[in-house]
Write a structure and sequence with these properties.
With 488 residues, the protein is of the alpha/beta class. It folds into two domains: 4-94 and 209-479, Aldolase class I (TIM Barrel), CATH 3.20.20.70; 103-204, CBS-domain. Helix content is 33%, strand content 19%. It contains 18 helices and 20 strands. The strands form six sheets. An eight-stranded parallel beta barrel has the order 4-5-11-12-13-14-15-16, surrounded by four helices. The structure holds xanthosine-5'-monophosphate.
Length: 488
């Protein structure tokens, strides 16, 4: 008598999800917790990412998220041209080096310079001679007092010719020292007489000290990408342009564990210079394959993103019977990463309902988490604020929903099984409008930090070592407020 199928069911491990586990309290030495993490060469003061979804992350969200220390992954349900524009906006949003420096020709009049500065809302311009070299600085303080001198005077007669400048590639600290030593506020970057940029004291002392930045002080930029290698040279060309503004590409498919996606991505990784996070996957075997057999260029691969079917707008598991809930997938892939390449970061993606789900993810091996649900209702997400029965709401939709596929169509066809055109794998709905991102991030940070304090972990690595237990259905019910009159 065969027991193959009975064993198939009876000997299986439990596929757990967030509510199934609870972290056990640990010995707390200090309330000082550090939630910062590294991924590849990048540092994040906030181990949180916003999902690559068209109702979650476009440039406004990506900029704000990076300013707050995390990362927003720009979606791909649009043209490459639009993606390029969004990436340029992120890269230009903040830098301690200004590239498009306002200049004026040496033969310009004082009146022209004054108008130019007022129009641009700046207090000074670099003066350029007819050989295109920097030859002076003209600021509002150099504008003569008398009206007729303003009218008829030339910039060259009033500018400062002794330019204090710095060489390209100077560090933030070198620039700060130079500005302080000379008691100036602006420092042109000059090489062989040619103007290469400008550093200002304002940009060196940022309002957002936790921002996720590259080594030029620009915000980190992440973009979702199809795992397929583009067929046309036109698309390849624009991808190369995009590559100049992106730090990390995220392959963006529901299930990355496919030969076709592996082959396409290998080509992309050779073709593009930026780093890659691969995903989504959900099992030890898929991670083992990626890390040992697939042959992805090791210098480019910095992370793996996991979770399938857990998202609040997902219906993949319902529609197809296949899935890997985020906490289960995280534990699976974390073991493979430990076994084969501990330098790779793990991103737990989707299914987060409460701030307490964050510490749970880290306790089973995640380095960072990604959510759409927490952020779709923020001011910074794309879309309008609507009102339903007096409540402010915003639309949140799965990338496999009918609505998202109708809008982008061809752009995300390969996020799911291309042939399954009529089977939606996500839904579209409303979520409450929750105000600016900063407030949401603050609550998540508090949930995470307090969870770490209770668990006795002072950083994310220690968090990976805390003890967890499985919760019975009765235990789960007890975690929520209960036995109250429910009047308020
Ligand atoms: P949350 O729980 O934050 O999940 O809403 C966001 C993650 O869900 C994935 N995603 C989808 N999965 N059908 C799916 O099965 C979809 O239509 C869909 N859209 C997004 C994605 O990984 C995202 O980060």
């Amino acid at each position: 008598m065969s027991d193959y199928y009975r064993n198939k069911i009876n000997s299986k491990e439990l596929i757990t999800t967030f509510d199934d586990v609870l972290i056990l309290p640990g010995y707390t030495k200090s309330y000082d917790v550090d939630i910062g993490v590294n991924m590849g060469k990048y540092h994040f003061n906030l181990p949180i990412m916003t999902a690559a979804m068209d109702t979650v992350t476009e440039e406004e969200m990506a900029i704000k998220m990076a300013l707050l220390g995390g990362l927003g992954v720009i979606h791909r349900n649009c043209s490459y041209e639009k993606q390029l524009d969004m990436c340029i906006s992120v890269k230009r949003a903040r830098s301690f080096v200004i590239q498009d420096v306002a200049t004026i020709n040496v033969d310009a009049t004082v009146k022209e310079a004054k108008y130019h500065m007022e129009e641009a809302g700046i207090s000074g311009v670099v003066v350029i001679n007819n050989e295109n070299k920097a030859c002076g600085i003209f600021t509002k303080r150099d504008i003569p007092y008398r009206e007729h001198e303003i009218r008829n005077g030339k910039v060259k007669d009033y500018m400062t010719t002794d330019i204090i400048s710095i060489e390209p590639g100077a560090s933030r600290e070198q620039a700060l020292a130079m500005l302080f030593k000379n008691r100036i506020e602006k420092l042109p970057i000059i090489s062989d007489g040619y103007l290469k940029g400008l550093i200002t004291i304002k940009d060196l002392k940022p309002e957002f000290p936790n921002a996720s930045i590259d080594n030029e002080g620009r915000l980190l930029c992440a973009l979702a990408i199809s795992p397929q290698f583009p067929e046309t040279s036109q698309v390849r060309k624009i991808l190369q342009k995009i590559d100049q503004y992106v730090d990390i590409f995220f392959t963006d498919v529901a299930d990355f564990y496919k030969q076709k996606d592996f082959e396409g991505t290998k080509k992309l990784m050779k073709f593009l210079d930026s780093n890659f996070v691969l995903g989504n996957i959900g099992t030890y075997e898929a991670a083992e394959h990626i890390l040992t057999k697939a042959g992805f260029p090791e210098d480019k691969l910095i992370g793996i993103k996991v979770g399938m079917g857990s998202g609040s707008i997902c219906s993949t598991s319902i529609q197809t019977g296949v899935g890997a809930p985020t906490i289960y997938a995280t534990a699976q892939v974390a073991d493979a990463i430990n076994d084969y390449n501990p330098d790779i970061s793990l991103i737990a993606d989707g299914g987060f309902k409460n701030p307490g789900d964050l510490p749970k993810s880290f306790s089973v091996g995640a380095d960072l988490i990604m959510s759409g649900h927490f952020f779709a209702g923020c001011t910074e997400s794309p879309g309008y604020i609507d009102t339903i029965q007096g409540r402010k709401v915003k639309v949140y939709r799965g990338m496999g929903s009918k609505e998202a596929r109708k809008l982008g169509g061809k752009y995300i066809a390969d996020r799911y099984v291309e042939e399954a055109k009529s089977l939606p794998e996500g839904v579209s709905d409303y979520v409450p409008y929750v105000g600016p991102l900063a407030g949401v991030v603050e609550s998540l940070k508090e949930g995470l930090s307090n969870g770490m304090i209770y668990a006795g972990a002072q950083n994310i690595n220690e968090m990976k070592r805390v003890k967890i237990g499985l919760v019975s259905p009765v235990g789960l019910a007890e975690q929520k407020p209960h036995d109250l009159m429910g009047k308020y």
